[in-house]
Amino acid sequence: MPDKAYVITGPTSGFGRRTARELARHGTVVLVGRDAAKLDAARKGIEARGGKAVPVVCDLSDLTSVRHAAARIIELGLPIAGVLNNAGIFPNRPGRNALGWDIAYATNHLGPFVFTETLVPHLADGTQVVFVVSAVEDPERKPATMAGFRGARYISAEASARGEWQPGGSKLAGADAYATSKQCNLATVLAFARETPRLRFNAIEPGFAPGTNLGRDANRFLRLLSKYVLSPLAPLIKYWTNPRTAARMIARVLTNTSDATGIYYDEKGRPMRGSAQVHDPAFNARVVAETRALLETVPA
Ligand SMILES: NC(=O)c1ccc[n+]([C@@H]2O[C@H](COP(=O)([O-])OP(=O)(O)OC[C@H]3O[C@@H](n4cnc5c(N)ncnc54)[C@H](OP(=O)(O)O)[C@@H]3O)[C@@H](O)[C@H]2O)c1
């Protein structure tokens, strides 16, 4: 086993569960999730296949929990070669975290942002830091608009935390919060790649996977149809995937030792373009600056 470690958030379901198993072939996997029992099951699954895994409990919607988890990971002193920010939610009704902030924005953007910023000073030069994002941030993305998305609706980090999105958004419940939070992930990657050239910051659009638990709020019939009928067929359909196929591609990007940074990969692992807005350096720097300013309002 090479002397390397990979940190992954959301290893208890969907893309993350499969990717954690792939990563275990390359080194020790640090499993970061909110549910201790599920983390333990994931650890046992990896160990049963001869891999090594260390669970770390972390609720990404809770900044205190995020800071503790990052500190615990630093304490472990493992030779971290890659960090995968994979965990995410797409709730179909508005919710709030303990600070009263929009739950999707807090879980998908603010938590992973704090997690990454806390780890960064402790990461060795060349470490890969990858975010699993989503092409629904782009208002020009055909399959996303056909599904009812209207792209990211960013006003400011503060407005997003309040659950306010630019008018004219989607009629799909939860879509504006989700698309905006995922655009903030991509903006973070592009800005961090410029700010910290000693590390690699890259993003992945994994493809649409009907069989994961992301749509856990959908009705039971739709969930069963997605998991057992659509998911096995998904890799045959353009822009679609399933956890097995996506995990191989995600692990390939995370274990890649090339110097490429600031790259946005599609579901086949090829470079792609995001929205015109997210590629504007002034915009992605503004997202990062506003996120930091918002987070400074919360006592550490
Ligand atoms: N599925 C798609 O079509 C699709 C497309 C593009 C991008 N993505 C992105 O892919 C990533 C993975 O999604 P998925 O489809 O694999 O969904 P999933 O099956 O629901 O997995 C999500 C993971 O995130 C974890 N998680 C949720 N809330 C958390 C919190 N507060 N703290 C810590 N962990 C938390 C979940 O933990 P529990 O097991 O405890 O719930 C689970 O391990 C997400 O970032 C999503 O936005 C998905």
TrEMBL record:
Gene Ontology MF terms: oxidoreductase activity
One of the Pfam families matching this protein, by short name: adh_short
Keywords: Oxidoreductase
InterPro entries listed in its UniProt record: NAD(P)-bd_dom_sf, SDR_fam
Source organism per UniProt: Actinacidiphila yanglinensis
Name of this protein: Short chain dehydrogenase
Residues annotated as transmembrane: none
Family indicated by similarity: Belongs to the short-chain dehydrogenases/reductases (SDR) family.
Top-level division of the source organism's lineage: Bacteria
